[in-house]
Design brief:
- It is built from seven helices and two strands, in the order βαβαααααα.
- With about 160 residues, the protein is mainly α.
- A two-stranded parallel sheet has the order 1-2.
- Helix 1 links the parallel strand 1 and strand 2.
- The longest helix has 16 residues.
- It starts with 11 loop residues before the first strand and ends in an 8-residue tail after the last helix.
- The relative contact order is 0.14.
């Protein structure tokens, strides 16, 4: 970090998905350096979409309406309202039974609630936008896919 001059940056953001290991590294090394943690907005949207489909039924108009509402609340930084909506959806469905499939709507909704709850402090999207920070790692992920495709393509072979 020092060699790259990141310490001198006026505003520094760390954007990633909700994996605990990513945030453990952030808390250990980057947060003390003044980085702002941002939950990748696209990853949140995927989670909210799945939960809305689980609560209202896949492909239904109600699912789209619920998803759009949660998405707008998240964009506006109304995290408590997003969590309340997810909780209400989970209550409506009931708890997922032990050993249920990954596609069980109760499990999908419960996991979305857990995901949003665990990352609620990283969902200050209006503040991040105001600071000019990106809200998604999509651009970096896209570049990495291109690099991997060129470096690790199926027709590539390495010699000693």
């Amino acid at each position: 970090m020092q060699r790259r001059g990141l310490g001198q940056a006026g505003c520094k953001g760390y954007i990633c998905d909700g994996q605990k290991s990513n945030w453990t590294l952030f808390e250990m090394h980057l947060e003390p350096q003044g980085f702002i943690g941002i939950l990748d907005f696209v990853h949140l949207l995927v989670s909210l979409h799945g939960a809305a489909q689980a609560v209202e039924g896949k492909g239904s108009a109600g699912a789209w309406k619920r998803y759009e509402g949660w998405m707008r609340l998240a964009w506006a930084g109304q995290v408590k309202e997003v969590l309340a909506g997810l909780r209400q959806g989970c209550d409506q469905l009931g708890a997922p039974p032990e050993g249920c499939s990954e596609e069980d709507p109760r499990k999908v909704a419960a996991e979305a609630l857990g995901y949003a709850t665990n990352n609620r402090t990283r969902m200050a999207y209006p503040r991040s936008r105001q600071l000019g920070l990106p809200l998604s790692s999509a651009a970096v992920e896209s570049v990495m896919k291109q690099v991997n495709k060129r470096m690790k393509g199926t027709e590539k072979f390495w010699l000693e």
